[in-house]
Design brief:
Strand content: 15-25%
Mean pLDDT: 94
Helix content: 25-40%
Structural class: alpha/beta
CATH superfamily of the largest domain: P-loop containing nucleotide triphosphate hydrolases
Radius of gyration: 21 Å
Shape: globular
Largest sheet: 7 strands, mixed
Length: 358
């Protein structure tokens, strides 16, 4: 057993999402969004380096020493998988580990709206799951893949850096590929995937122009493509995809995106106040003929109105989702106000209105 495994067991027992190990600091766990120090001595650079290098593959250590950054996955059988990131900082080495539960939560476990299951059953197109770092994108995407795996008879290829949730083939055949181990890059894997007879392609992160362009190409040539982006809302997601391309290509990309994009799920995590844990508020954009027209005509500023009036298609705004959580008394009025888009809607729930509303 590696020395660091004791921290992972503690992490699991405490229900922590992340473990932070940094030279010059005690270990810290993130529990329900808050950073909590572990009662342990301050870590020295040499001690922490030895602890981290014990679990890192030899070839990965070499990459880290050359670049100062490293991502990989680490697994403890019968406990969990961990997404590991090593980095160099002012005082020495540092690392953050995100726990990836071995049990994949279903769409029903997460309380996802029915339209999310419908998106997982589409025949072709692009579906994006977005949100800030640590907002639960991977968990939602895993639930969608799980639903497809149980209800379709097709070939799913996932491309991730590193592999997070591991799905066992059920009705579907699933092939997991990790960037840096099984393929050189996201774009190389996507090019290869088009020759590997896939029905569904999951792109762990759409980071750059080439990856986004290839994902759009795959979606427009008859495949169902799922991807993640770091954006705050569904309308901003559309703008982000278009803005990645040079200005002389953007009008063509608007046309392609209007035809390929089928849905955007943008989410944010909230701390529960009724019990331990967190819950997600989801903004959902379903691309209808009217939505596609706005994307094509560069009128994405009108998308919030489309979401507001598109409830019959399963659409919902982030603020409506937040309000629902607040009415259930699952979240605090302060956090609801802080993360809302139209903050004025939530002032009435605050004990003390902020200066701009007083």
């Amino acid at each position: 057993m590696a020395k660091i495994d004791a921290f992972f067991k503690l992490m699991n027992e405490q229900g922590a999402s992340d473990l932070h190990l940094t030279t010059g600091s005690q270990p810290i766990l993130r529990i329900n969004g808050d950073m909590e120090r572990v009662k342990y001595k301050t870590l020295t650079n040499d001690e922490l380096k030895a602890m981290l290098y014990e679990i890192a593959p030899e070839d990965k250590v070499k990459v880290f020493e050359e670049t100062g950054d490293l991502d990989f996955a680490y697994e403890i059988p019968n406990l969990a998988r961990y997404r590991a990131n090593f980095f160099q900082q002012k005082w020495g080495i540092g690392a953050v580990f995100r726990e990836i539960p071995s049990k994949i939560l279903t769409a029903d476990d997460l309380g996802l709206p029915p339209v999310v299951k419908k998106l997982a059953m589409l025949r072709k197109g692009l579906v994006l799951v977005t949100g800030p770092t640590g907002s639960g994108k991977s968990t939602t995407l895993a639930a969608m893949m799980d639903y497809a795996n149980k209800n379709r008879k097709e070939h799913i290829i996932t491309v991730e850096d590193p592999i997070e949730f591991v799905h066992k083939s059920q009705q579907c055949l699933i092939n997991h590929r990790e960037v840096g181990i099984h393929t050189r890059s996201f774009s190389a894997a996507l090019r290869g995937a088009l020759r590997e007879d896939p029905d569904i392609i999951l792109v762990g992160e759409m980071r750059d122009l080439e990856t986004i362009a290839l994902a759009l190409e795959a979606a427009s040539t008859g495949h169902l493509v799922f991807g993640t982006l770091h954006t705050q809302s569904a309308p901003k997601t559309v703008d982000r995809v278009i803005d990645v391309f040079p200005s002389n290509q953007q009008s063509q990309i608007r046309v392609t995106l209007s035809e390929s994009l089928k849905g955007v799920v943008a989410q944010n995590l909230f701390k529960r106040v009724d019990k331990k844990g967190r819950c997600a508020a989801l903004e959902i954009l379903v691309v209808t003929a009217a939505t596609a027209n706005l994307i094509r005509e560069s009128k994405t500023f009108q998308l919030p109105s489309v979401i507001q009036t598109g409830k019959k298609f399963g659409m919902q705004s982030l603020d409506d989702a937040i309000l629902e959580l607040l009415k259930k008394k699952w979240i605090s009025p302060e956090e609801a106000y802080d993360k809302a888009i139209e903050k004025g809607r939530f002032v009435q729930f605050l004990k003390e209105p902020p200066d701009e509303f007083s």
